[in-house]
User: Which sequence fits this backbone?
């Protein structure tokens, strides 16, 4: 059968999706973000039943399925649970590579927090190493009010 | 469970850039192939489930835009957002409900039309993590390191998955990236995010898969030999990566256990003849095999090196070439199921696994395998 489309130029509509959007942080995340901004303190929520401390905080303990009610401050120091060094400048990465991403278990918390590690040669990062939060000079109530974690 | 079967499958070729085809064009091709495979016409289809993702498709309510090409005009059509295995699960439950005798399920993605790093970054929580700029590759790299740290699995063992699967794809005419490569080729390819080299990562491809599921009374009415659904289950883990032990996949362990029990399988290592597993990254094939009990803990890398998972090994895994050789994201799991259907019917051509009777297909939804869907299929009722 003759291909009725042979030789037809493939047309492409180059455009983009850009929709302004506001994510309401809600009461729980707001309190956490305000604490980062105003006090340089990292606070989590504790489940009254299983005593797990959730960082970042959320309203509900997913294990016990009850409201978390107690706020606790955790340490700004913790242990690297896992990490990666981004070497390619992937489109989502907001800094110049190499960029080190890690999950950090802060002392006093039972869940890890995702963040950057910096002030270290990428090849020196190890699972189990100790790190400490470095706060941004200018803080706006965002997760990047912690600028990064540095080796202890 | 009441009986149901897969009675037709159809897939487009998986390609890097189908610039000459729209989403609907791909759905039209896959749907017609599935109908022809089953020996049915669109009038034999009682209802339709389409599977897609709005961010990947660059439009809202993307699933409704392929309904016409999927033959859904004047039919009950519903949609699933997520991997194709979840679309198939919904299609199955519709057949088992008694309201429909047959369901046509489609799943499609075009990776070529967007920037995958930005699309997958949007899966992160907008308050707590998105502005850090992680995406699917960097998140899975975290998981790969955690898995390798716990199990002692090596970069060479990861590379062997890529060598095996790209090599298997040489015999699959629908594969996107058939390649004869060496372990050294993988290890010397660009390091994207430690420990994942470029050849440890699947491409983001274009493609569509369609499947027809029927209840027992309808399954025998058409020309195709039914492949029976013996067990299926899915479970989800916590959303936030820091809440999980990323070196494990407890939702996969739970889903596999349930699916085996539904299928009456007590020793999956012996009773599964062939498996198609969600290998979006090399480490995933090894990790998922261990977590679903198809080999011992921390053993997959060593067994792979001994040939256990080759097409002529004791448990052939991703004989089709897997996702490493072609990954249209939302269609990925449905293609895994279609590949098992081919194997159990004896229709897999040059990559046919001899005497395959019972097969396992696996799909994933969410970052780092938050949710897993496991299907046990069999060529005997």
Assistant:
């Amino acid at each position: 059968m003759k291909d009725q489309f042979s030789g037809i130029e493939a047309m492409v509509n180059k455009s983009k999706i850009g929709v302004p959007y506001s994510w309401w942080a809600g009461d729980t995340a707001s309190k956490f973000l305000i604490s980062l901004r105003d006090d340089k303190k990292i606070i989590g929520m504790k489940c009254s039943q299983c005593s797990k401390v959730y960082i970042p905080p959320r309203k509900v303990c997913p294990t016990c399925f009850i409201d978390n009610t107690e706020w606790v401050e955790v340490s700004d120091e913790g242990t690297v649970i896992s990490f990666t060094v981004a070497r390619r400048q992937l489109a989502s990465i907001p800094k110049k590579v190499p960029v080190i991403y890690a999950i950090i278990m802060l002392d006093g918390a039972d869940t890890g927090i995702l963040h950057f590690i910096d002030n270290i040669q990428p090849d020196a990062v190890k699972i189990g190493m100790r790190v400490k939060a470095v706060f941004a000079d200018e803080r706006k109530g965002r997760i990047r009010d912690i600028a990064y974690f540095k080796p202890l | 469970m009441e009986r149901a079967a897969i009675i037709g499958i159809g897939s487009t070729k998986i390609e890097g850039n189908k610039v000459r085809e729209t989403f609907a064009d791909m759905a039209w091709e896959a749907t017609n192939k599935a109908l022809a495979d089953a020996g049915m016409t669109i009038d034999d289809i009682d209802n339709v489930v389409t599977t897609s993702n709005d961010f990947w498709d660059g439009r809202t309510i993307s699933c409704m835009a392929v309904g016409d090409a999927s033959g859904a005009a004047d039919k009950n059509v519903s949609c699933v957002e997520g991997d194709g295995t979840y679309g198939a699960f919904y299609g199955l439950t519709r057949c088992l409900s008694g309201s429909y005798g047959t369901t046509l399920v489609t799943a499609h993605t075009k990776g070529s039309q967007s920037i995958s790093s930005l699309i997958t970054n949007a899966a992160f929580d907008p308050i707590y993590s998105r502005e850090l700029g992680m995406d699917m590759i960097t998140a899975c790299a975290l998981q790969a390191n955690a898995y390798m740290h716990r199990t002692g699995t090596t970069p060479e063992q990861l590379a062997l998955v890529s060598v095996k699967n790209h090599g298997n794809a040489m015999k699959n005419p629908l594969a996107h990236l058939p390649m004869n490569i060496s372990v050294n080729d993988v290890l010397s390819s660009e390091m994207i995010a430690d420990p994942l080299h470029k050849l440890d990562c699947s491409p983001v491809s274009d493609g569509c898969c369609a499947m027809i599921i029927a209840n027992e009374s309808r399954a025998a009415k058409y020309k195709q030999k039914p492949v029976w659904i013996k067990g299926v289950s899915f479970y989800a883990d916590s959303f936030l990566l820091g809440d999980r032990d990323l070196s494990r996949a407890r939702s996969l362990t739970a889903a596999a256990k349930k699916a085996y029990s539904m299928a009456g399988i007590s020793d999956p290592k012996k009773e599964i003849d062939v498996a198609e597993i969600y290998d979006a990254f090399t480490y995933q094939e090894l990790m998922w095999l261990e977590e679903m009990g198809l080999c011992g803990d921390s053993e997959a890398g060593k067994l792979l090196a001994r040939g256990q998972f080759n097409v002529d090994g004791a448990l052939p895994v991703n004989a089709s070439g897997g996702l490493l050789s072609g990954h249209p994201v939302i269609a990925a799991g449905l293609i895994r199921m279609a590949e098992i259907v081919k194997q159990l019917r004896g229709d897999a051509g040059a990559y046919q696994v001899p005497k395959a009777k019972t097969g396992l297909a696996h799909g994933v939804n969410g970052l780092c395998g938050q949710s897993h869907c496991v299907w046990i299929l069999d060529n005997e009722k």
DSSP finds 13 helices and eleven strands in chain B. Chain B has a mean pLDDT of 97. Chain B touches chain A at residues 19-20, 58, 115, 117-118, 120-121, 126-129, 131-135, 137-138, 141-146, 149, 190-196, 238, 240-243, 246-247 (CB under 8 Å).
